[in-house]
Write a structure and sequence with these properties.
The chain is of the alpha/beta class. Helix content is 48%, strand content 11%. The structure holds iron/sulfur cluster.
Length: 263
């Protein structure tokens, strides 16, 4: 088994010993998932070729105006805020209706100096309760996906969402909420200045690419957000519901790695 596979096996074994076997999508046993990933690793050469084609063929700049960035210019205090000032502004923010029902503002997790910035959609109940993005089962799967490509949010990944406050009942974000919150994310990306952006889920993918296409049509290509390479993939929560998409998510991660390896 490759070093990557060995590390993933150790990770899975650790989670199993912690009594969390359910983190594997579709109820697969960790060994079954390892088998799947090992098979994918054997196909790495082919996947890399596919990723190279993707990188060569399509480096697209978003063309549509991003919701919020033009309709509502970044307030001056956001545009010049440093990281801690931005965080303080977010924690006190009441720019949209979601401020009324939240328990906490979920600003970020991980390393603000990380190479990779993962952008999700919005906090759920676990995130609202803890103030940390990507916790619970979906968060564990995200960590597993990152571990499979030798990345971790403790060391090299910064994680946040388009919306910093939980929509009630986990409903979809509304356009005016995204518009209100977008200046925070825009400044967040400027300050973190990652090498690569990974949009997980439809709303992050659409906002960052400036497209209204479905996620399945957006993934598989490399975009540019303000000059930062951007890859799109499924949200881990969607992967938990649709384990058949795991192979596609793996290909997206390989595309992302292709870009990071070239840096
Ligand atoms: S979702 Fe964003 S804009 Fe709305 S209150 Fe929370 S931080 Fe402010």
């Amino acid at each position: 088994m490759s070093e990557r596979g060995t590390r993933l096996a150790a990770y899975l074994d650790q989670r199993r010993r912690l009594g969390e076997p359910g983190i594997v999508p579709g109820g697969l046993a960790p060994g079954e998932l390892l088998g799947l990933l090992a098979t994918e690793a054997e196909r790495k050469t082919g996947a890399k070729k596919k990723a190279e084609v993707g990188v060569r063929a399509v480096v697209r700049a978003a063309t549509r105006s991003r919701a919020g960035s033009e309709a509502k210019p970044v307030p001056p205090q956001l545009g010049t805020a440093d990281y801690e000032e931005l965080r303080e502004i977010a924690l006190a923010c009441t720019r949209c209706r979601l401020a009324e029902g939240r328990k906490t503002v979920v600003f970020s997790d991980g390393n603000p100096a990380g190479r990779l910035m993962v952008v999700g959609e919005a906090p759920g109940a676990d995130e609202d309760a803890t103030g940390i993005p990507f916790v619970g089962q979906a968060g564990k799967l995200l960590d597993l996906m990152l571990a499979s490509v030798e990345l971790s949010r403790q060391e090299s990944v910064y994680v946040c969402n388009v919306l910093k406050c939980r929509p009630p009942g986990n409903r979809n974000p509304r356009p005016d909420e995204i518009e209100a919150c977008a200046p925070l994310l825009k400044r967040q990306i400027e300050l973190v200045a990652p090498e690569v952006l990974l949009a997980v889920g439809l709303f992050a993918a659409q906002w960052l690419t400036g497209s209204t296409k479905a996620l399945g049509k957006l993934r598989g290509e490399v975009y540019s957000y303000q000059g930062v390479p951007l890859v799109v993939t499924y949200h881990p929560a969607a992967l938990l519901r649709n384990p058949g998409w795991s192979r596609l998510a793996w290909e997206d991660l390989q595309l992302m790695c292709q870009i990071m390896d070239s840096k």
